[in-house]
Design a protein that fits this description.
single chain; 328 residues; mainly alpha; MetI-like fold; 76% helix
Length: 328
């Protein structure tokens, strides 16, 4: 196991190197440039230098005077030292801004994953055990609706109904206008109240895929020979389903859950932007729109690391879920 993990970690480092190079090259090729925006603003001030003069000065200031390859290796060396530079847009160190906003996105991601698991997996099992019944059709329709609904459409629909029509929730933001006047518990409940619609959006959009995935794998397991043998021995249907079939269904489900690890920390870029929840997703969106290369590079590298880590964890969990699986 140790040898396997070491090989996978070394392979992950190689993959990360090439992934970050592609990301860096794309970021350097973005049409939107924060440096150009600053130079244009400063050149319009009375008595200021020209746009070209400001551009030359800012390019040197922000270390953009080298080519993509040289700039990448310079960035890679700084990254290995834990130095991701200062955000051009937020004017603070990247890691400082990251630590400030990550926990809000983590809370949203953890809530979403918790409800995703307790809703999607049981419904997928129920749909499989009652194949072609009315219950199966209803669950399948709900799953397909969740998969098909665009995030921006569903979020806009929720805001129209519950914010505009009913007035139960605010349209945007994390706190109400009277937040500072509330007690400590009141502030907590105020923030929790503002997270209801964003979390509902994320849960509904995410449960469909896992629900269908669980149903498909459960049906495959239920049609296996050993399940028919277990039933022939006289075991109860409940024991056959939840003791024998469900354990083997967990193997592909664990893969999907392991791949969901980045969602815990990466934030929901579209959802946070639509609801103006200033987590890591909201900041990353505005950093990319504003051409903030240091912050965008850190965010995308962070996503790549989490994806590689999630894949490794899923592979290791195979042996935990199913004793028949051994890593050699």
């Amino acid at each position: 196991m140790k040898k396997y993990i070491l090989k996978r970690v070394l392979l992950a480092i190689v993959i990360l190197f090439f992934v970050t190079f592609i990301i860096y090259a794309l970021m350097r090729s973005l049409p939107t440039s924060y440096i150009e925006s600053i130079a244009r603003q400063k050149s319009m001030q009375p008595g200021s230098k020209s746009f070209d003069e400001w551009m030359d000065q800012l390019i040197v200031m922000y270390n953009m005077d080298s080519g993509i390859v040289v700039g990448f290796f310079r960035w890679w060396g700084q990254m290995l030292q834990g130095n991701f530079g200062d955000s051009w847009l937020f004017t603070v160190p990247v890691l400082e801004k990251f630590r400030e906003v990550i926990w809000l996105s983590f809370i949203m991601g953890a809530i979403t994953m918790f409800f995703q698991l307790i809703i999607a997996v049981p419904l997928g099992i129920i749909a499989a055990t009652k194949q072609y019944s009315r219950t199966d059709y209803i669950i399948s329709v709900l799953a397909l609706a969740g998969i098909s609904l665009p995030t921006f459409f569903f979020a806009s629909l929720l805001k129209l109904v519950f914010s505009v029509k009913l007035g139960w929730f605010d349209l945007f933001g994390l706190v109400s206008r009277h937040h500072e006047q509330l007690s400590a518990m009141g502030k907590f409940l105020d923030k929790a109240h503002h997270l209801v619609l964003p979390c509902i959006t994320l849960i509904v959009i995410s449960i469909g895929g896992l629900m269908r995935y669980t149903r498909t794998n459960m049906l495959e397991v239920l049609n296996s020979d050993y399940i028919r043998t277990a039933r022939a021995k006289g075991l109860s249907e409940r024991k056959v389903i939840y003791h024998h079939a469900f354990r083997n269904t967990l193997i592909p489900v664990v893969t999907m859950i392991g791949g969901s690890l980045p969602g815990l920390f990466s934030g929901a870029l579209i959802t946070e932007t639509l609801y103006s929840i200033r987590g890591i997703g909201w900041h990353s969106y505005h950093a990319m729109v504003g051409g903030d290369i240091p912050f965008s590079m850190f965010y995308l590298t962070f996503m790549a690391v989490l994806t590689l880590l999630g894949t490794l964890i899923a592979d290791i969990l195979y042996a935990v879920v199913d004793p028949r699986v051994r890593i050699a």
